Amino acid sequence: MMSRVSGTFLLRASVNGEPIDSDNTRIVFVAGPTQANVSTFFGLDNQFVAGETGQLVMQAYDQYGNFRGVSGDLWDENPTLQHDSSSDTVFIRDNRDSTYDLSFTVTLSGVWRPQIRLDGELVGSGALSFRVLPAELDVRSCVLVGDSARYAIAGKSTKLTVQGRDRFGNNRTTNDCTMGI
User: Fold this and answer.
1) Upper half-sphere CA count for residue 88 (Cβ side, 13 Å)
2) For residue 50, what is the DSSP state?
3) Which of 15, 58, 66, 76 is most buried, judged by most C-beta within 10 A?
4) How many CB atoms lie within 10 A of CB 119?
5) What is the Cβ-side half-sphere exposure of residue 142, based on CA atoms within 13 angstroms?
């Protein structure tokens, strides 16, 4: 007997079409071992901000997509978050219910990909990502950009461009501040 669906089922048996006269037996099919490429993350659509602690939840599923319901999976060492050529550490906490809290603090804005592995396989096949926004504008980190920032012609007006940045050097790309020079 095999089931790809986990849960409790009522077993009714018969011989040559005649039901066996016995109590209806319940049989429990439990989820199989965690399969990394079927498991996934929740919270990827949250608004994460550079320098602030972020949290994702990882849900373990078996190869058929059954909710595991138990914990204790041994994730490969050095779970990270990847951003282009840089990476940062992520901490995993087992909630003892087949979910795992991932906490992290990154300072680089942009798209990040969780790199969590079980038996060498990436959770979600490595295709999942989330966005980290720049922190609040930090005037001390802003810079003048463009040719006018280096030289100007005497007697002629010139336009200066200020690139707003957060305290980590991430460019602010929205018009959320007014600057005077």
Assistant:
1) 19
2) T
3) 58
4) 12
5) 18
